[in-house]
Amino acid sequence: MQLLTNGFGTTSNSTIVNSTITISNTLTGLLTPQHVLKQRYSILGPIGRGGFGAVYKATDLEFGGRLVAVKEMSQNNLSPQDLAAAEDALKHEAMLLASLKHPNLPSIYDQFTDAGRSYLVMDYIEGETLEQLIASLGKKKMPTDKVLEIGLQLCLVLEYLHTRQPPVIFRDLKPANVMITPAEHIYLIDFGIARHFKPGQKNDTTALGSSGYAAPEQYGRSQTNARADIYSLGATLHQLLTGDDPSETPFQFSWLHLNDSTLSGLDTLVMNMVSVNINQRPETVSQVKQELQRIVTQHTTTHPLPGVPAGYQQPPQRQKRSKTTTQQQIPLQSNTLCVCYGHNSRIAAVAWSPDGKLLASASYDKTVRVWDADQGKVMLIYKGHFARVNDLAWSPDSKLIASASDDRTVHVWNAATGEVAINYTGHKGMVDAVAWSPDGKQIASAGEDACVHVWDAATGALSFQYNEHKEKVQTIAWSPDGKRIASAGKDRLIHIWNPAHDQQKQPRTLFEKVSEKFSALLSSTPWQKTLPGQYGTINSVAWSPDSKYLAAASNDHRVQIWDALTSHIVFTHGTNGSGIKNIVAWSPQGKHLAIGSNNRTVQIWDLTANNAARVTETYGGHVGYVIAVAWSPDGTRIASAGVDRTVQIWQAFPSVP
């Protein structure tokens, strides 16, 4: 196990101490377990020591015992010049990281001085450096898929740094400064020599970098800009793909000679990135990212899951059935418009952009894919999460997507470019659900910590935290009028509450499904009503377009609809054996419900006949449980997805011209 430790700057040479500090100096690393710094950080034990400091694993007593890394800089045995340089390096790193927030960067929590030594408190991250991973492979090459994944994650964080104002140039990208967690999430570490780009300055004040990875201009020939980081990224990718250590032969890179036509363009891209001529390199990391995404898409769709056709599949003519020879036969229906392939694990959520042009799908494979809703072609693959993605929501203007993940974060990112706008890290557990307010100003998220967080969609600042649930919250929905939120999950309760006023103890409604009881809290006086049957975990809630009714699907094989104002049940459907109901979605016109279940079907129910629903369509195109269902904004199409790893777009009412 390694710990993220951004190295303390040295003064004896032109590089930075390796981010993993080795044990050598007895003047630091003397803190013992249970020693408490600043009456807040309880030391668990040392991780490493070096000439300029030590690193400890500790718990933060003020924030629920979260694990942190405490970096200690010794102020002993240093000349005044060295002491000043070390303190400047630590302060520079602290100030720079404090101004940055990105999923692939460590967070900084505190900086202080205690007993003559300076401390920096940061994220504790388990894993290893890419340098160690390369060493563990020996003579084996890293799988290309993994290299592409690492490259895309590094592009995302470099793109973020380079688009700050002023831009941040990292200047020391190399395998030793890249951490990879067991979940294969990347962290860029060691900001000791990162700097802001200064327009008009001819060269850098000091030549710093690592031999083999540093661009020629970092040796004092000119001021480093974003293209210096592109060079270092290219050198790192070249090493990962070939196993050749660039520090042994600086500025000399052999062609990759990849024997895979689906990787066309990768060789040229990497060689352009490591060109000694700065003008021959890509101008921006965004260009590198776009080319890597193109290669990933090309490689993925040409090498799909065993027996599954690539890309997307157009349906046969009406009355004809496809006879594709697949490991998991996809039985195309006459109303299937297209079947989208690409995810390599179950799909947890699908959502249409409000303008109806795009469709997004979230998967346990840690990605979100954005598809052209008309053709079913993938437009972008978002890989910012390092654990499975459970839910997603579009902003009302169709420009941004919020995605919730088991990595305990919600990312808000640009649907066209993948650039991250916000990384919300307020939850203490996995995040299962996310919903955007109709006015676009707030986002609600919930999950394993049994809390619903309501936060500012522009800044990520927490506005309100709803703590009334007793167990994991699995689903949340914002009423279309924006006045209420419905939340539910494993405690078998549906809570309806006002996100703007609940902190003033405004009345809220609780739909409780425990044994055979149904209870509601309409004011301060609870009342109960007996309901038939048994009840289980609530998997999905959905509001009617007029915000008057609430539908819920649960593990008890039932779908029920409540009057949201009176708490009266107006409709119940489902029996044991009819399949666990995973998802319920209300049509934009409010006349139909679409229900996805474990019986591998999606049913459309007509609700217009005296609340006695009748099934008007049963879609059987899936070969696994249906977990996600969404209506197109115009109400003519449905997207469904689930365990079979496909997104299927189909006509909701095929009999209607």
Short key terms for the protein model shown above:
657 residues, five-stranded antiparallel beta sheet, disordered N terminus, WD40_repeat_CS, ATP-binding, 6 helices, 3 domains, Prot_kinase_dom, Methylamine Dehydrogenase, Chain H, mainly beta, Phosphorylase Kinase, domain 1, Transferase(Phosphotransferase), domain 1, six-stranded antiparallel beta sheet, WD40_repeat_dom_sf, 34% strand
Task: Describe the structure in your own words.
The strands form 11 sheets. A 6-stranded antiparallel sheet has the order 2-3-4-5-7-6, with helices on one face. The chain has a 5-stranded antiparallel sheet with strand order 13-14-43-42-41, with no helix packed on it. The chain folds into 3 domains: 2-124, Phosphorylase Kinase, domain 1, CATH 3.30.200.20; 129-197 and 208-297, Transferase(Phosphotransferase), domain 1, CATH 1.10.510; 335-494 and 537-651, YVTN repeat-like/Quinoprotein amine dehydrogenase (Methylamine Dehydrogenase, Chain H, 7 Propeller). A hairpin with a 5-residue loop joins strand 23 and strand 24 (442-447). The longest helix is centred in the first third of the chain and has 19 residues, at 80-98. The chain is mainly beta and 657 residues long. Helices cover 14% and strands 34% of the residues. It is globular.
